[in-house]
User: Fold this.
Amino acid sequence: MQHESMHMIQHTGRLHGRDDGSSSQVMGPGQAAPGEQRGAASHVVDVGTLPRAMYLLRLLATAGRRGLGLTELAQRAQLPHPTVHRLLQQLGKEGMVSQIDSTRRYRLGRMAFELGLAAAGMYDLRDACRQPLRSLAETVGDTVYLTVRSGLEGVCEDRYEGPSPIRVITLEIGSRRPLGLGAGGLAILSFLPDDEREHVLDAVIRHLTAVGMVEASTLRHSVEECRARGYAFIRNRVTPGVSAVGVPLFNSLDRPIAAISIAAVNQRMTRTLVPQLAEMLSVKAREIRSTLLAQA
Assistant:
C-alpha cells in the first residue's frame, strides 16, 4: 500500500444556487433589488447586496489565480455591469477582491486568504476523513491515503494502514509529490476547472519532463482517462510493483481540494478489482463531503 490522494466524489453543484439561508429578500442572480434598476448604476445599499457580493466571491473562488473579467462576472451572475463593478469596488476596499494590473481581471484578495487560514483550523479535513478512511482501510486491507493540494503539489495529509500482511508504504505523512504523479494528485489535477487545469498541467509537465520522470503525452493521457472514467488509476508509475486508485474530494463550489486513494502491490490490485475500489472510494468521498457541508 502506498499511494496518496483521492479523486472523485460526485458533483452536487451548488454554485448557482444561494445557500445563505435568505428568503424572499434575496434576489436571483439577475433579479433587480428594491431601489435598483437593471442597467443603471445605483448607490443604494439594499437587502440584496450581501448575497450578491457573496455570490461574486464564489464565482471568483472557482476561477483560480487567472481570475475573471468584469463582463464574464456580470454574465455569470446575471447582473448589470454597473452593479457588479460597484460590488467589486466595495469588496476591493475590504481586501476580499483584488484586480490584476496586467489583465484587469478580478480574483480573490489577501483578506479572503487570511480568512480561509483562520477557518482552516476550525474545519480540519482530517477530522472528517478519519473514521471513513480508517474503516475503508480495514475493509480493503490495504493503505488508504488522504492527499491535499498545495499549489502544484499534492501533500500526504494522513494515512491509514489496513491489516493485509503485504503492504507497501512509500508515502509518509507530510511528503509531497507533483500533482499528477500519484493517484491522489492525478485525481485532483484532472478535475480542476479547465483553465486552471491547463495552467497547472503545463507547469507540472515542465518539471517532470525536466527530471525525466513522466512524458508530457503520458500525463495528458492519464488526465483524459481519469476524467472519462471518474477516478485515477496508476500502475508502476511511482514505485515498481505498486498500483493505486484515487478519487477527488470536492468542496461546496465543486472544486477538488483533496483526494483519497488506495495503494497496494500489483498482485492485490487486479484490473477487475480497480472499479470496485473506485466505487468504494467514491462512497467514502460523498460521506466526507456531507460531513464537511454539515459543519459549514
About this structure: Residues 274-295 form the longest helix (22 residues).
